[in-house]
């Protein structure tokens, strides 16, 4: 099992296995394969140690992944909250940030439904 950036990659095609690393999606994985000259449908276990070392060094040098990326995203959100802009306030309240409706949907962002008791009739 190959290990890149602290992530154990499963024995799948290389362009699929690279997407297990946070910050690398399908297009980035295809670009990496093309730059390294590795066919995208080779299994991870079929790569030599030298190819894995080259792949590891290329990814760590050219891509912001895993911890560095998570830290940067967290700091960006914290900055928005600190300056008090609209997006920052939405993050602080735990509501959708990008203009989605909240009257009926947004359960993922708002959390479990909190029922409010209705007014009793006399």
Describe the structure in brief.
The protein is mainly alpha-helical and 122 residues long. The protein has helices at residues 14-17, 26-36, 49-62, 66-83, 86-93, 107-110, and strands at residues 2-4, 7-9.
How is this structure best described in words?
- The chain is mainly α and 122 residues long.
- Helix content is 48%, strand content 5%.
- Strand 1 and strand 2 (7-9) form a beta hairpin.
- Helix 4 (66-83) packs across helix 5 (86-93).
Q: Which CATH class of the largest domain applies here?
A: Mainly Alpha
- What is the global morphology? elongated
- Structural class by SSE content: mainly alpha
Q: Span from first to last CA?
A: 70 Å
Mean pLDDT: 91
Any idea how many domains? 2
Residue share in β-strands = under 5%
Query: So, CATH architecture of the largest domain?
Result: Orthogonal Bundle
Per DSSP, the total helix count is: 6
Encode the helix/strand succession as letters: EEHHHHHH
Radius of gyration: 22 Å
Keywords:
about 120 residues; Helicase, Ruva Protein, domain 3; 30s ribosomal protein s13, domain 2; single chain; mainly alpha
